[in-house]
Amino acid sequence: MTSDSGGRVAVVTGAARGIGAATARALAADGLAVGVLDLDGAGAKATADAIVTGGGRAAGVAVDVADADAVSDAVDRVVAELGAPTVLVNNAGVTRDNLLFKLTEGDWDAVMGVHLRGTFLMTRAVQKHMVAAGWGRVVNLSSTSALGNRGQANYSTAKAGLQGFTKTVAIELGRYGVTVNAIGPGFIDTEMTRATAARLGVPFDEFAAHAVKDIPVGRVGRPEDIADLVSFLVSDRAGFVSGQVIYVAGGPRS
Ligand SMILES: NC(=O)c1ccc[n+]([C@@H]2O[C@H](COP(=O)([O-])OP(=O)(O)OC[C@H]3O[C@@H](n4cnc5c(N)ncnc54)[C@H](O)[C@@H]3O)[C@@H](O)[C@H]2O)c1
């Protein structure tokens, strides 16, 4: 989409599949080298290999974003293999859905660990390269669930928390040429929504058709719908957009 990004290095977490993989491909097409990070090391390598086969630059790195030492090592590997990253997309995510009275402490901690602790650790590790460069872009994946969603007390809390993190870090890093924004996807067709349908015992097509009834544009989202906005937000053209939460849900909310 842009030619201003050539030579920059991006890190995308949770990029083995779904929205993260589509984002890694989009940024590579924009000319960025991409550190493809994921808990699933084989999946991360597959995303990176496909980018390299297509003529781009990428490296797959296995990491648990909730583990501080692993995050530090993963960012060092990206620096060594691709160069210092100045773009970070905090996309790694998990769901552990249940109604509040059935939600376990493990369900709560797992979701907070990946979304909140993971985004904090990754952003803290990468921001030093952005500050050194006097330029940077952070995009955090929130969700329409931040507005409230039955069975997701843990996930909606984490996704709302990411909005506060986004706004505060935008204030702290703006003077260094760094913008920080959040995207709140609605219903996107990925393994995450397919797993939700399976857990509810509903065929995915039926689950999606039910969701579409409440989506003004009349379809569910594709990973590329999110990747396209990331592509813009990390470009030079988006330098005056910061601290914002942009819902991408086919309507004002899902
Ligand atoms: N699919 C949707 O409808 C939807 C809607 C709103 C927000 N989101 C958010 O978008 C992001 C991507 O979602 P998706 O639908 O592509 O999900 P997905 O489940 O298809 O992919 C998530 C990826 O994150 C990785 N991951 C999980 N825990 C990790 C960890 N600790 N460290 C590193 N990687 C880890 C997984 O291995 C997986 O590859 C998530 O943050 C999700 O919460 C998705």
Give an account of the 3D structure.
There is one protein chain. 47% of the residues are buried. The chain has helices at residues 18-29, 41-53, 68-81, 105-133, 153-173, 191-200, 204-212, 223-233, and strands at 9-13, 33-38, 58-62, 87-90, 136-141, 178-185, 245-248. The protein has eight helices and seven strands; from the N terminus they run E-H-E-H-E-H-E-H-E-H-E-H-H-H-E. The protein is 47% helix and 15% strand. The chain is an alpha/beta fold and 254 residues long. The mean pLDDT is 97. It is globular and about 45 Å long. A seven-stranded parallel sheet has the order 3-2-1-4-5-6-7, sandwiched between helices. The site of nicotinamide-adenine-dinucleotide has 30 residues, from helix 1, helix 4 and helix 6.
Topology of helices and strands:
Elements: E1 9-13, H1 18-29, E2 33-38, H2 41-53, E3 58-62, H3 68-81, E4 87-90, H4 105-133, E5 136-141, H5 153-173, E6 178-185, H6 191-200, H7 204-212, H8 223-233, E7 245-248
Parallel strand pairs: 1-2, 1-4, 2-3, 4-5, 5-6, 6-7
Helix pairs in contact: 1-2, 1-8, 3-4, 4-5
The structure holds nicotinamide-adenine-dinucleotide.
